[in-house]
Specification:
- It is a single chain.
- By secondary structure, the protein is α/β, with parallel strands linked by helices.
- It folds into 2 domains: 125 residues, Leucine Dehydrogenase, chain A, domain 1 (Rossmann fold); 199 residues, Rossmann fold.
- The protein has 11 helices and 12 strands.
Length: 351
């Protein structure tokens, strides 16, 4: 592998970037710790069949930075970190690759604590626990609480976006949800229960059928859901869906979803603003999952976690108002608010 991490376009003065390998299992992974000003690095581990190691590194760098800002703006005392395992799709070695990653994690001595993310299920995390102490502890069997809190946060972020755009609430609004995983399906349920209409798409036909049967959702054709006529476009799958190709095609007034890194690059935020589309920054509205994590020494309580997730409506409104009042984009406004907390904790830094 020949990668220059320090000249990588997504490198943002990360405190630590590690390339992990294990010859016996074929495991290859990146661990990126962006900033531990507010506390120890905490973030999920993603497993994905990346097209290249460059793509995997980019994902780790961007996701870990996003976690720093997510914790900062949501008031949590953790640092931004993420890991990605490059999936070679060999099911026969999957468990061994996960264990090899866990052993690498254990050698870091707690500088980074991991958990579930795309491609990594609760069963995988249980397996990791046999080889490392550094997996976050939450009282759950199937990550249901994380998905619920994340969906509740996105739902309330959508409410803030609709209000800021001068539109009625969820009732009667059309929401286009892309991605029907645990979070996306929960979000659809909340929208349906509150009188919203749904347009959906997912690569999994069974999930599409479930959303159609349970919620009366209209199904978009593949590759078109971002361009359907709707009040809200809610990306809830993978990132970079807001890019030079898709933004000119958007017909929604508000963008707010659970996916990380929705902008293909930061400049796309301004292109959304130029079209008068209200963009609710992803790391603001999808922070409900991290709000599941209780402070040290305090037992987990779902009602308290859901209360924190509902407050995302107020945080989102604050970001949108700051953007309007200062003539900047919502993404920039969210960065400014998050950086203010980091600066207060650790002195001035560059935005």
């Amino acid at each position: 592998m020949s990668l220059n991490i320090y000249s990588h376009p997504d490198f943002d003065d990360h405190e630590m970037v590690i390339y992990c390998t294990d010859k016996a299992s074929g495991m290859r992974a990146f661990i990126a710790v962006h900033d531990t000003t507010l506390g120890p690095g905490l973030g999920g581990c993603r497993m994905k069949a990346y097209e290249s190691e460059q793509d995997a590194l980019s994902d780790a760098l961007r996701l870990s930075r996003g976690m720093t800002y997510k914790y900062a703006i949501s008031g949590q005392d953790y640092g931004g970190a993420k890991a990605v395992i490059i999936d070679n799709r060999d099911e026969a070695t999957r468990s061994e690759r996960i264990l090899a990653f866990a052993r690498c994690l254990e050698r870091l001595g707690g500088l980074y604590v991991t958990g579930e993310d795309a491609g990594i299920e609760t069963a995988d995390v249980r397996l990791m626990r046999t080889a490392t102490r550094h997996v976050r502890e939450l009282p759950m069997d199937d990550a249901g609480e994380i998905a619920l809190c994340t969906a509740v946060g996105v739902f309330h972020g959508i409410k803030a976006g609709l209000e800021f755009a001068g539109l009625p609430g969820i009732k009667g609004s059309v929401v286009a949800v892309e991605g029907l995983g645990k979070v996306g399906m929960r979000l659809c349920q909340l929208i349906h229960e509150n009188g919203g209409q749904l347009i959906v798409y997912d690569i999994d036909e069974a999930r599409i059928a479930s959303a159609r049967d349970r919620f009366g959702a209209v199904v978009a054709e593949a590759g078109t859901i971002h361009a359907v006529e709707a009040d809200v476009y809610a990306p809830c799958a993978l990132g970079a869906v807001l890019n030079p190709g898709t933004i000119p095609q958007l017909r929604a007034a508000v963008v707010a979803g659970a996916a990380n890194n929705q902008l293909s690059d930061p400049d796309q935020d301004a292109k959304l603003a130029a079209r008068n589309i209200v963009y609710c920054p992803d790391f603001v509205v999808n922070a409900g999952g991290v709000l599941c994590v209780p402070e040290k020494g305090i037992p987990f309580d779902l009602d308290s976690a859901l209360g924190r997730a509902r407050n995302i409506q107020n945080v989102t409104a604050k970001v949108l108002e700051h953007a309007r009042d200062h003539g900047i984009t919502p993404g920039r406004a969210a960065d400014v608010i998050a950086l203010a907390r980091l600066t207060k904790a650790n002195g001035p830094r560059e935005a």
